[in-house]
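User: I'm new to structure prediction. If I give you an amino acid sequence, what do you actually give back? Let's try with this one:
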Amino acid sequence: MHKRVGDRAFEIGYWIDREMINQGYATEVSAALVKVAFEIMDARRVEIHCDPLNHRSAAVPRKLGFEHEATLRERFPATDAEWNDLMIWSIFASDYPGSPAQKVQIKAFDSANRQIL
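Assistant: Good question. You get back a string of structure tokens that encode the predicted 3D arrangement of the chain. For your 117 residues, that looks like this:
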């Protein structure tokens, strides 16, 4: 989770090896991070950014109850000469209760190995 999107806001980033796609890892980990953000870190908003051409990546926030906020044109550098568009997905604290992300069962522990979720 990155804190670069504002106060009490987090951006989730993920990358899955080509040989490991379609196994639900990005969705499972993202759901756990959303739960931690809202239930432990008192987040106001969580975002996921992805390339609109990466349909598998865009499926993750869709599955978890995020809303597509915007697609920004030529926002992300692909190479020194090329820029890609960037989709921004968000879920707010008020939308979290009852969302698919909230329903995921996880266990979370603090650094002293005490269960906090």
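You can read the tokens as a compact description of the fold. Here is one thing that stands out. The beta strands are 9-12, 45-50, 67-77, 83-92.
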